[in-house]
Design a protein that fits this description.
The protein is mostly helical. It contains five helices and no strands.
């Protein structure tokens, strides 16, 4: 089993103005699972990572980067 990682899921969900229930409907994951993914207390499968990246319209690596470097990477990705 993969180790849980710190992530930006909560930040991305807030920015998208989605509730846990809405993310649950859109991804097929349970609300408790999403909550644990966001808290970093539950590891995510490759499928989950791809679903979140698709939902939030970000490259998969941007689900896991620190907030202070995300802008630099976003700018570099758009060039």
């Amino acid at each position: 089993m993969k180790e849980p990682m710190p992530n930006r899921l909560r930040e991305l969900r807030d920015r998208s103005r989605l509730t846990l229930q809405e993310v649950s409907i859109l991804t097929g994951f349970s609300v408790p699972a999403i909550s644990r993914h966001e808290a970093g207390t539950r590891s995510m499968s490759e499928e989950a990572i791809l679903k979140y990246a698709s939902l939030y319209k970000v490259p998969t690596h941007q689900l896991f980067i620190a907030p202070d470097v995300k802008e630099e990477i976003t700018d570099a990705d758009s060039q």
